[in-house]
Amino acid sequence: MQHPGRLWLALEHIPGLSAVRAEWRQWLGDELAWAEAHVLRPTGELATVYPSVHGEPYHIIDHGGGRFRGVHSDGAPSLDLSTSDVTILRIDVVRLAQHLCDAFGFRPDSFVDSGVSGCYRIGTARVTAKTCCPVTLVVRHDDSMLHDSITQVIAQAAGPFVIMTPGTIVDRALTRVLGNRHGCHLPLSEALQGTASGLGEISPAGTAILEAFRRLVRTLDSATNIEEPYLFQRRGEVWTLRFNGGSVLQLPHSKSSGLAYIHEAIQKPGIALDVVHLDSVIALAAAVPRPGSAGEVLGKADIARYRGLYESTEAELDEAKRFSDVGKIEQLQARLDAFTRNIHEATGLKNHLRIAADDVERLRKKVGMAIWRARTAVRAKDAAFGRHLQANVRSGREIVYVAEPSPDWLT
Q1: Lowest pLDDT segment from 185-189, 246-250, 275-279, 281-285
Q2: For residues 336 and 343, is the Cβ–Cβ distance under 8 A?
Q3: Burial class of residue 398 (count of CB atoms within 10 Å of its CB; 0-12, 13-18, 19+)
Q4: Considering Cα of 204, then 210, then 211, then 213, what sign does the dihedral take?
Q5: Residue 111 banded pLDDT, cuts 50, 70, 90
Q6: % of the chain with per-residue pLDDT over 90
Q7: Prior bond to 42 cis, omega within 30?
Q8: How far apart (Å, rounded) are the C-alpha atoms in residues 85 and 303?
Q9: What residue spans define the domains of the chain?
Q10: With 60 as the cut, is the pLDDT of residue 284 above it?
Q11: Burial class (CB in 10 A: 0-12, 13-18, 19+), 374
Q12: Which residue has the higher pLDDT, 40 or 308?
C-alpha cells in the first residue's frame, strides 16, 4: 500500500479531525486501515448523526444494548448500526506529529497546542549549523481559519519558522506575507512521497523547498558578519543592530517593541514625530488596530483581512501595469485607496481629532515606556550603544532623534 496521500485531503475537510468510521472511509478509501493502525483513535464518544448518500445525514437513535438505528428525514430506508459504527474516531495529532518529524528529519518537541484551533507546534528544524526553527502544523478547514492560524504563528515567531499544511495555500497575499517574514511552507500533499509504510518520505519538491529555505536562513545568518558600522534592521520578529562597528546584536521584537519607535525616529533625524501618528504607523505595520477614545472601528481580524486583501490587490495591480491595462489599473487603484481609507479610519492614522487628551497621555506613557525598555535591553548588551540612545532619543508627546551629526544608519 502507498503512503496515505488521501489523508491530507481528509484533514482539510473533516472539522475537528473527528468523524465516524464511515465518513473517514469516504475520504480515505483503502488507506483507512493504515490510519486506524497509526493515527486514528476511537474517542469513546458516540455520534448523533451518520453520513448518508441522500444528502442530509441519518439521525441516530440509541435503542440500548449496543443497538442503534439511523433514521433519515427524507424517508430513505433506516440503517441498523453497531456501537463500532457510531463511535467517533479522532486523529491523534501527537502521533501524527511524531510521524511527520520522522519523515522530515525534524526533532520532535513537547507537543504544544497553540490555543488556535487547528494550529499545533510539533517540533524543531535544524536548518543550518547556527539556526533552529520552530515547526508548526496548521490544519485548516476554510480560508479564514487558515489565515487566522498562520497570522498567529507569524505573530509568535522570533525568527525564521516552518509551517506545514495538508495542502497548498492559494491565497497569494498570505504566501507573500510568509515569504516576507522568513517562513517556510511545506504542503504535505507535495512535500511527501509514497513508500510501502508510514507517512512516506520527503519528495524532490519537499527537498527543494527546504533547500531554498536553508539558503535564505544562511543569508540571514551571515548578517551577523555584516560590515556596516551602523545597523538598525528588523528581520521577521528579530531586530539586528550594530553601533559604531561594535558587536552585532539580535533582540526579539516581542521583548523590545520600543525599537520600532526608535527605528522610525532614526530614519528622520531632527524631525519631531507626533506620538499619536507614530503609534498609528507602527500599529498599521503590525496589522493591529490602535484603540482610541471612540473605540475600535474594526477588530483585529477585520484589519488583518483588509491587509490581506490590500496585498492581494497590490499583486493584481502590478500584473495590470505589466500588461498596460489602463482600465484595470484605475479600478484596482481605486480599490487600494478604499482599503487605505478604511484602515486609516480604523487606526486613527488620518483622524487625530478622535483622540482625547487622556488617550494622548496614555500613548505618551506607553511609547515612552517601550522606548525605555528597548534602550535598557540594548544597554545590557552594548553599553556605548545604550548611552547613545539614552542621550539622543527624546520621548514625550513627540519622539525625536537628535544626534548631530547623525550616523549613516542602514535601516
Answers
A1: 281-285
A2: no
A3: middle
A4: positive
A5: low
A6: 31
A7: no
A8: 45
A9: 6-91, 94-221, 226-288+355-411, 294-354
A10: no
A11: buried
A12: 40
End-to-end CA distance of the chain: 54
The yes-or-no verdict on residue 299 having pLDDT over 60 is no
Dist CA 289 CA 345 (whole Å):
10
Question: Which has more confidence, 286 or 294?
Answer: 286
Per-residue buried b or exposed e for 141-164, using 16+ beta carbons within 10 Å of the residue's own CB? beeebbbbbbbbbbebbebbbbbb
Higher pLDDT, 17 or 115: 17
Question: Which residues lie across from 125 on neighbouring strands?
Answer: 133
Model confidence at 110: pLDDT above 70: no
The cell 497590490 sits on which residue? Answer: 314
> What's the chain's Rg over C-alpha atoms?
26
Closest alpha carbon to 49 in 4, 19, 16, 93: 19
Cα 363 to Cα 291: distance, rounded to the nearest angstrom: 10
CB neighbours of 103 closer than 8 A, spacing ≥ 6? 192, 198, 199, 200, 201, 202
- Nearest 5°: phi and psi at 96? -60, -40
Secondary element (H or E) of residue 214: helix 204-222
- Which grid coordinates are listed for 131? 539556526
At residue 253 the predicted structure's pLDDT band, cuts being 50, 70 and 90, is: confident
Q: Give Cα 331 distance to the centre of its chain.
A: 30
The SS3 of residue 183 is strand
Taking CA atoms, 234 is separated from 61, 264, 325, 381, in Å, by: 59, 12, 36, 17
305: Cβ contacts below 8 Å, ≥ 6 apart: 147
Distance, CA of 254 to CA of 267 (rounded, Å): 22
Distance (Å) of CA 383 to CA 36, 224, 242, 265: 59, 19, 12, 20
What is the arithmetic mean of pLDDT over 370-387? 92
